[in-house]
Every structure is written in structure tokens, then in C-alpha cells.
Design goal:
Length: about 230
Amino acid sequence: MHSSNVTTIVSGLPRTGTSMMMKMLEAGGIPVLADNIREADEDNLGGYYELEKVKEIKDDTAWLDGARGKVFKMVSMLLYDLPADREYAVVFMERDLSEVLASQRKMLERMGKPVSDEDDSKTRALYEKHLAEIKEWLRNQGNFSVLFLKYNDVINDPSGAAAMLDGFLGRGLDVDRMAAVANPEMYRNRAGALAAASPSPAAELPSGDEEEDEEAIKERLKGLGYM
């Protein structure tokens, strides 16, 4: 259970349902910290709920003073850069990587940035490595508490997810309004359909060079507009 002074963050990889989760928490009664510079589009009809300052967290943390008691969205790669002098409650969204990659690929193609099967294979391996590392890192941070939620579980049982969120954040959230946000019609790029249409290529092993792997992930995230 967290007080209203804790900073709440919705995190995960892009296209894991982080915007939907932001909308759920807003409906539940938590003030959202977003500038809406990135407007709703075909890839995210309900809006992105983003704050541009988040991308500069490594160089500018002053805005975090106004984030206590509110919720903002931050891609998981940036969690490492948060200052250690405050407490964070992180709702970490997870999703089948085949669905994540398919959704990201469509988004990049609409931006005029085509992606090859080889690109996706490399990105899958990098994402798998990153997720394992960030989860281990979060477990070792005394100022972070984390609730991991799977996108398809939220879609399939929004009431259950809303109850878990209320229990985790402990702020008397409106669980009925939260549950009403999750829309099964927005669940595109389902893993079963993707596998039937085109089996995912085997993930290539990361390079083994930590800096090179990190830069490769950052380049993908920059291409998607998240860094």
C-alpha cells in the first residue's frame, strides 16, 4: 500500500498496453502527468499519455518534484536513470513479444521506417535480454515496488486487474471505472493469429557487447518516439 506522496510510473516496452494502463489509472482517480504533445493517431486511438520531459530524465530531474501523487509513463529502458532519493510504485506492463514486435513493426512502417524479419529477430533477442536485466535490477532496488501485469490478462479480466491495481497502490481507486477502460476491440496483433500467418523467426543472440546492445535498443526506441 502506498501513500499519495509516492511517484507512480507505468512502464514496460512500447506497445505493451502502457497507454491503456495510464487511462485506467486516470479513470481510477490518479492525476496524470502528461503534456499530450504526441497526439492520438491510428496506432493509439486513445492517446499516448506521454510527457516529453521523461526522455531527458538523465539530465533533468527537477520536474519529478511535481510528480508525487501522480502517474506518468516511462519506457522501461529509462527506469535506470531515476534518482534514488525517492520512492516509486511501478506498474510494469508485459505482453507476448511476438505481439509487441508486430505492433511496433506496423507503427514503424506507418512512420516510413520499414523493418525486416532480421531486424525483428535481433530486436526480440535484445528485448528478452533487457527484460531479464531490468526485472533483476528492480528486485534489488529498495525504493521501487513493482506490480507486473500482462496485457492480455488485463483485457480478459479488467475487473481483476483493477482490483490488483487498487490493492497495490492502496489509494481507494474507482475499480469499476478502471475496468470499463479496457477494450477487447483494441487487442490487435494477437499471438495466435500472428503465428498462423507467419511464424516468428528464431531470436538471434545479442552481440555480447553491453554498450552495443544498449545502443541498439535505444535506437529502436528512438525510432518509435520513446527516447
